[in-house]
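Task: sequence in, structure out. Protein: 24403_t:CDS:1.
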Amino acid sequence: MPEKNWPPCRPVIYHNIQEEIVDPNSCQTVEQSYKLWLSILVTSFTGRYSPISVIGQLILALVYILLWPIFDFIARHLTLYRAYKDDNLSYFRWFFLVTLLDIIFGVFIGIGWVFGGGGGLIEMVTNFKAIHEKGAIAIVAGVFNAVCATLVFAQVVMHIMLWRKVHAYIESKGWTILPGK
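Result:
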């Protein structure tokens, strides 16, 4: 068993995409998955701040910052990593399930239906409507909301692109996502 090397600050797992995934196309797909996870980290920190938030939203935002990136890394990225490494259809199926959940969650976050919409389109519209009452702070909040929604929807698109790429690989092997077919 190779020595644990990830995360660099306190290694708990062995993670080396280039060494363990031999096929160049598969390696590129898993690297794309890892970069998508890194973008989730960035988005979770940029999108959870709103200048007119309350303490409850701040607490929920901290939970969101801690849970989504960890869940995404373990359940989506590492599952895809293992699927390509072991060429295992069960791991690919788990990847598709978790990616579907990620896409749905991203749409809900981007629109602003989750946790009161602190960073979504609904809150952005609300902030821009409140410019006459609240002034410049509403503009700043609206811009933060717009940036967050844009980043989240970009991630949804990247998840869909990754889904399609992995699905094409599955089809090239003659496999199917649904069991029993």
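The chain has a mean pLDDT of 83.
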